Amino acid sequence: MSAQKRDMGMVFQSYSLFPNMSVVDNVAFGLRMRRQSGAQRRAKAGELLELVGLGDQSIKYPHQLSGGQQQRVALARALAIEPRVLLLDEPLSALDAKVRAELRDQIRSLQQRLEITTVFVTHDQEEALSMADRVCVMSSGHIEQVASPDTLYARPTTAFVAQFVGISSRVPVQSDGKEVVIFGQRCLVRSGGTTVSGPADALLRPEDVAVEVDPQGDGFITHKSFFGAITRLVVQVGEIPVRVDVRSDAGADMALGLHVRPSIIARDVLVASRTAIEIPSED
């Protein structure tokens, strides 16, 4: 089916508004192409501008708006034709962090209110996990996993997904396909993935590991990052750096160089073959 016959609304990364048209005319453009009357176009465009919080900006031109406002105009324009599906191609990547978070929440709220099936393409894992009902992770054109955000994060089925979505530390282990030993503890191998026997890597989330201060511990803290409620530590265990999340009130007393004893608190772990995993860049 040719593009003009597809019942689809599109929001581009670079806004792609018509610079010679006012905000209201930009929103009404699709309706004009569908030969709706001027009164109908203006009424519909006004409703959508109110919906995206720009009802008082209708007579302005794109260059008079901020980036976040321009992207809301682009969203209203895509919604004006009442499409069966809405496609958003990295619509937030050109915005600063605060505006990106605000517009992300607004897009999700509008999608739920209007109940339009929406395909949102992004390299930002936080966007995908916070907005989607279902996430598809792709690598080199191949689908790695399709799942709900919580399943994707907590139960990744491939090593690529485990390292691409969130943060994982790779710890060398010997696997018999059912159990591995990590930090002296026996752990179950997560089912659902590829069965690996022999030398392998366990992929650990920062919340899968706990640490206890121990002068005789075989790990020591090399980095420390404060993230509000949690503090992320990097614990060097032999030659392996392991990321660990602790509550910030507990992490306040953990200085760099402090010896600690790591332990596994996850019920099972994902085990992958001992090969390098290349995470593609946004380019």
The secondary-structure class comes to alpha+beta
Strand content: 25-35%
Chain-averaged pLDDT? 88
CA-based shape = elongated
Largest sheet properties: 5 strands, mixed
Strand order of the largest sheet: 6-9-15-8-7
Number of separate strands: 15
Poorly predicted runs are none
Q: Whole-Å distance between the termini?
A: 29 Å
Number of helices: 8
**Element-by-element helix/strand order:** EHHHEHEHEEHHEEEEEEEEHEE
What is the percent of helical residues?
25-40%
Structure description:
By secondary structure, the chain is of the alpha+beta class. It has helices at 23-33, 38-51, 67-80, 97-114, 125-131, 149-154, 159-164, 248-251; strands spanning 8-11, 85-89, 117-121, 135-139, 142-147, 169-176, 179-182, 185-189, 197-204, 209-213, 219-227, 230-237, 240-247, 259-264, 268-273. Strand 2 (85-89), helix 4 and strand 3 form a beta-alpha-beta unit. Helix 1 crosses helix 2 (38-51) and helix 1 (23-33) packs parallel to helix 3 (67-80). The chain is elongated, with a radius of gyration of 24 Å. The model has no long low-confidence stretch (mean pLDDT 88).
